[in-house]
């Protein structure tokens, strides 16, 4: 009797372990449409196979990202997935991108994802939200020099010569107009006579 219970427990444990070791997809059939990929992602999410779910949602973005409905759904699912894993920064970024899309294109989009994003954003700890908002509102001055450094070496830098108006006022007073040739000859002839 004890041997049967031990054997049954061992088989159950092995089945549980192996059923949880679903492989991450290495190739995803081109025949799958966006709805099927979303469903596969959701199925993997439900069984806690988060990496596989992420791959399916990103595949939707790669293949069908030009369609706003599919893009919004995949972005929302990714945000939801990241929130479940407590990857708050990635979740926040996905939800905020969706919110920005709704602000820039308010008509013709399914309204459900905007509402769902609001609900999901409320699940992110408040101190994390403040941290992300501070990051988003940080001065962009720090990034400007990086952009200049990334400038292509083929692109010539145009240097503008300073104009008279650019000079400080003190220098403007000291600058005298050049003498004309006629006036210098007359002064020379006046000195000689």
Report what the structure shows.
Mean pLDDT is 76; it is low at 13-20, 147-173 and 183-193. The protein is built from 10 helices and no strands. Helices cover 66% and strands 0% of the residues. It starts with a helix and ends with a helix. It has helices at 2-19, 34-46, 50-64, 68-84, 88-104, 112-121, 126-137, 143-149, 169-174, 181-192. Helix 2 (34-46) runs antiparallel to helix 3 (50-64) and helix 5 packs antiparallel against helix 6. The chain is mainly alpha-helical. It is globular.
Any chance you could write out the topology, listing elements then pairs?
Layout: H1 2-19, H2 34-46, H3 50-64, H4 68-84, H5 88-104, H6 112-121, H7 126-137, H8 143-149, H9 169-174, H10 181-192
β-strand percent reads under 5%
Major sheet: size, sense and barrel closure?
none
Helix count equals 10
- Name the quaternary structure: single chain
Helix share of residues?
55-70%
Number of distinct beta strands: 0
Q: How would you sum up the global shape? A: globular
Average pLDDT number: 76
In whole angstroms, the N-to-C terminal distance is: 139 Å
Order of helices and strands: HHHHHHHHHH
Q: What structural class do helix, strand and pairing data support?
A: mainly alpha
Which parts are unreliable, with pLDDT below 50 for 5 consecutive residues or more?
Answer: 13-20, 147-173, 183-193
Could you tell me the radius of gyration in angstroms? 34 Å
Q: Tags for this entry?
A:
globular; single chain
